[in-house]
Amino acid sequence: MSRWCKGSVSSAMAASSSLFSCSTHMDVLAPTISKCPKDVVRCHSKISYKEPSYLKSTCYPISRFLCMNNLSKCDKMKKTWQRDGIHCFSEGHKFQLDDVLDAQQFDRDILNAIFEVARDMENIERNSPESQILKGYLMATLFYEPSTRTRLSFESAMRRLGGEVLTTENAREFSSAAKGETLEDTIRTVEGYSDLIVLRHFESGAARRAAAIASVPIVNAGDGPGQHPSQALLDVYTIEREIGKLDGIKVGLVGDLANGRTVRSLAYLLAKYKDVKIYFVSPDVVKMKDDIKDYLTSKGVDWKESSDLVEVASECDVVYQTRIQKERFGERLDLYEKARGKYIVNQNILKVMQRHAVVMHPLPRLDEITLDVDADPRAAYFRQAKYGLYIRMALLKLLLVGW
To answer: Which domain of life is it from (predicted)?
Structure first.
């Protein structure tokens, strides 16, 4: 059987043949006709159905992503987001993305909709019907780099929704990769055992390589110094929950900005919001790379480099601290030692921070946030990790069963 799409044919059939695309606009990936049945459009290797002419009057334009509907569901609109156009995220509809690979995939409307689902996830009670919505689904966590929070939160998210987990903690050493198997061959094998793969890899771009050949959804859980989109989603969700807004905020990104995939992904998402200002505070050897700066400039985002953490902390709503990543320096340990310990969040930083501001960190931390900061209510990093569970529950629900 040829690969039609991410997910099984049975899942596509279950969506019913009355599904149709709610939008004729998609500036990310244009639909192309494949050798599928004549009523099917293939977009990024995933089935979507052409809009029957008799349903055109019920369509809700305009979305930059494909939005799947059927006639019975269009009268049961659960959420309609109105910003620049009209976007529909209606209950029972197919999720707009095949995979979660990078932060650029998301626009503001879909972010708001995902956050709404995450809020629902916060309220799911143990043993309730909602806690079984992924019953019968299997998720594989394939991690080529060490992880605690990301791997366990994805696995917890899957189990809290009734699904099952297949996992390998260190695929680089304890999988066939140690025998020389390619990533592509591993993905082709593991997709036969699971309905979704969460992948962490040491090479930038690995998740995109996996998605190119996989027939199940791929979630990028960090690809070397590339991106970490689910972390960025939970970071933005945390800011909204803690600060109460996303427009008009000031964020200080501190630490290893050259190698930090979390801050790179977060910068992409912050660019979706209005009147945001970003401060980059880092040692010279790990400054933010030009591609992110150029992107922010192209989007009209105000950014500034600074060497004064005290000044930045006094102005910001969010101080986002990161550790200096020793593993990214290779044999240049002299550069690592030069960078570490230069910027530390401690009581002196807390004294100048505004009362409503928060300190965030993707974790794990070393010595870049002192332990006595933990007792301050503005220390949000452990709450941030908990918010990550709800975001990942939302992503798994959306990728596997839709809105």
So the answer is: Eukaryota
